[in-house]
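Lecture 7 notes: from sequence to structure.
We start with the chain below.
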Amino acid sequence: MESLVWKWINKLLHRALRLIKPRRTMFRSGFEPRTFNLGDIEYYYIPDEDRGRATAFFPPLEFDNTIIETLREYPKNLFQLCKGNQLYEANRFSQIPLPLKFATLFHKDYQYAVMNMIGKLGIKVFFINPNIPDIEITIKHILSYFDLAYVILIKDAPFPLSQYSEFLIQGRKSFFDKLERDSARISRILTEMKGKKVTFKLDIPSYEGFSGYNEFSRFRPSFNNYYMLNQIICNDWHGHTPELKISWQEESASVIKGDKNDPSRLKSLLNQVDKIDKIEYNFIKLNHIKFPNGQDEWMSPLILTIPFNFPYIDLVIPQNAKMPNWDMLRKMLDMEQSLAYLYYKEGLPDPTEEESMEFAALATAKTSFLDSVAYLHASFTFSPMLRLPHLGNSIKKELSFFKPENINAKNIKNSRANILKFGNRLTERILPNGLSKDVFTLPRQIVAISDLPVEWLIHEGENISFTHDVTRIPETPYGGTLSAFAASSLFKFDLDENVIVNTLVLFCATADDDDREFLKYFRAIENLSKTLGYKTFRCKSAADVIAKVNEYKPSILIFDSHGGFDKETLSSFLWVNENEKITGDMIVKEQIFAPIVFLSACHTNPNYGYINKLADAFFEAGCISVTATYFPISIRSGFNVYLRVLNSLAHASRNPAHKNWLSFVSHIIRTSYIMDLSTYVYEFTVTSSLTMDAKDELINRVQELTLQATIRMTRFHDRVNAKDDYIESLKAILPTTFPSIDNIVPENAFYTNLGRGDLIMFKVWSENYKKVNTTLFNNKQSDTNLN
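Predicted structure tokens for the same chain:
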């Protein structure tokens, strides 16, 4: 029976939700529909209604989590059922993202999507809630419109639908049987799509070499990697999968008892990650695949999930709301997982069995939803997934130090030490005793699903945002995690050589005296635009912002402005003038977005429970990647960062220095500390009492060291040493009369990349990658139908 707590959460906590569904707005800003491989299976979900809401810290009401759990068992492509791991090899060889083809079509507008956005050809599978209005008419329409479609009812229908049994799927074996029955029809469809004869015959291969490689465990966080390994090696299409449905009642038996600090479960997950990595590593090496400029970050990204209990329940649900079981809810939100993934209460007595059972239902709903989201995001690149323990009070105290209302000049001055302290605490809590080395040693990008500042985890004594390219998908609001998948799965956006001229910089300032410095730097941006060709505009009002975004429809939108936060609404915003703000609601309503948004402003992504951030709104509008800030940033340092974005973008779009936007923007931010030190030394040099010759010599030497350091920091394994060597060399050549460079605050840790910037490819990199692998490309294309 549904608990009163659950009913009240659903009633009181809601937020606009955009589930995984096609967006017409994307076509306006340079997005292109993502290309399909021959044989791709398209999966669609039609829920019973669009309630348009999701809770702040629990999964959306409309989203049936069992759909993704079921989808994990099904192939992405028909040829996995006859050509085995050829789909995986084609994906890793081409380096082109290949997501699971999945979208939600709400019943009220599914006909529009069917008629206008979904091709008639290809194989379609529809998950349908039988409670939708006119279920028979809907099924009849689907089966008659498409060349070949199948239907899966997610629950028992209220009345018999036997007349459609020929196309109703009841489990994976039923699906395979129908595909075998329809193989001749499928071959005709594939031949029409390909333009030459293609034959499909269900003939599931058996890979004896992988016998025992993918063992099943009843530990729920391991399910994702089990199924991902099957998508890679195709070891389980024969239908021998154990029963994986574990209810929260079953799982709750492990909540109370056990060694809280036993790392064996975590190590089992790391072992799965290692197995997926070894397959990719061996495939790349055995095929002698080359990468432009000898780049070393070619492993598929790691999908890293760290669930976190929402900290601001008192603001969202007032205590005087007369909510049933309020105390129980509070107790449940005090619980978190230990290193052994066992629930406990930090600093409080162990939970009773009744409390554990009540909490297990909510916790499992939350973590299972995040597992499903992680699987969707991993599907682009057959990535391994790692869900770390669910955190709460054990980390809140340290995190609360970074509440936006607690940030002041002293905090900023000591930010390096404070961030490292938090990073060490977080790392010790979930990856102790050297386990972080097992996670972060490989050269790869990180896609994190969490509200925590995952960028501050520690590796080799540095935050991982320094050692790795990290992008984050906020856990809350929960609908946003799905929007982030939808934006990149249905559409793609690549960066071509004209991206710089399709970049718009909007400048917003108040009449305060400190904005004179703002204006000084923006004049430099305006002058540079005459050379590089990007657009700039000084906005006096929100209307100006809306007008210019609609006029230019930029590929990259940069805001140079003051930012702020509102604790009452847990939101962030941008100031346009003394009285007017750009808010999240305005961004969604007026469609203020671009595929890439860069916010050079303070407090645009506050820590600690803010659920209505600017980035959330940009994603809801259709953005793919947002770069925002945790803290206030200095005007000069912020200017230098986005100035380097503009200066370097023209070069990066014409030379294969970076594979994707995440690599590019992470490098700019990572090296900003080096550039700030260089600027600092330059300013003191020109005003010092040194002779002109001595000044020139020192400036030239600093420029030389800076260039060497920034080049070295493009290499994954050399970043930490490059920074340390640079600082040591700089100190060695500076006159003793100069102020210490230790006074410079490293603002690189103030930034956070959000969304899927790793999926925004530079076209020049892709073209160069094909060029250096020309022979292999020709051979691969002649060997497979997957193109």
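Points to note: The two ends are 49 Å apart (CA to CA). The first helix runs from residue 4 to 12.
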